[in-house]
Every structure is written in structure tokens, then in C-alpha cells.
Amino acid sequence: MHSVQTTLTLKKSSDVAVPPGRVRRTDGGPAAPPPKRLRVHGGEQTVPGTPPAFLRKLKNAAVGTGCDIRLKVAVSGSPVPTLAWYRNNVCLAQESGEYGALWIRDCKAADAGVYTCIARNPIGESRSSAVLAVLEVE
């Protein structure tokens, strides 16, 4: 019969090497991923920032015909994401108004559907969707 002895040495977290491109967190959480790389002619270039994330997502809503409604989102990301709005997968012409809001004025039955907001920046994209019901009001 063979016997094997092993020795285990524990090191403090400050003694552990961090791989290149990783950032060590001081709160003990997982390390942040390295920044994404963008292909550029002749090599790669680091794109600093964070992908878009919805802090406030779209919510299902109902509105009466003839009423106005504002669909609102809050988005984080760096650089600041651009927002595109869709109804039933058809892009809506966005007037330059309040960032993160889509106003639908004088609602009609044709305005009902699935609304989607897509936030994009060079790091990535995120989307949020909700249903808008338009009710006939007498």
C-alpha cells in the first residue's frame, strides 16, 4: 500500500497574484472582467466603459383612447447609450425630447402593442419591452 502526504499553504488575498487585465476588488467579490476590445485596422483598441443596463424597465400599461401616456426608462452605461424605440418590432421616429421617455399623445387603438426600448453603446446593448393596451372610453 502507498501513502501520500500533501501540504496545503494558505495565502492572504493580498498575496495572490491577479491575472493581467483583471481588477481585484477589496470587498472580496469577484474580479471585474477586463475591458472589451474593439477591432481597429492594424490591431485592437481598448474601449473603456460599461454596457447599457436598465435601471428602470418598461412596465405594462393601459390607457383610454384620446389620452396621453409617457413610457419611461432609466438606463446606465458608459459612454451614454443611445435609445431606439419600437412598437411591434417597427422602429418609431424619435423626436429629440426627454432622454429615456417616449410620449404617445391622443392614443388610438392602433397605438396598442408591444413597445421595446433598445439601449446601445460601443460596449453592448440591452432591451426592455412592455405591452400597451388602449381601451375604448365612452
Automatic annotation (TrEMBL):
SMART domains, per the entry: IG, IGc2
InterPro entries assigned to the protein according to its UniProt record, in alphabetical order: Ig-like_dom, Ig-like_dom_sf, Ig-like_fold, Ig_I-set, Ig_sub, Ig_sub2
Entry-linked Pfam families: I-set (PF07679)
Keywords of the record: Disulfide bond, Immunoglobulin domain
Ig-like domain segment(s): 52-133
Gene3D superfamilies linked to this entry: Immunoglobulins
Compositionally skewed regions (Polar residues) per UniProt: 1-11
UniProt-annotated stretches for the region Disordered: 1-51
UniProt GO molecular function: protein kinase activity
Keyword Nuclease recorded: no
PANTHER family (UniProt xref): CAVP-TARGET PROTEIN-LIKE (PTHR47633:SF16), IMMUNOGLOBULIN (PTHR47633)
Protein name (Swiss-Prot/TrEMBL): Ig-like domain-containing protein
Species: Chiloscyllium punctatum (Brownbanded bambooshark)
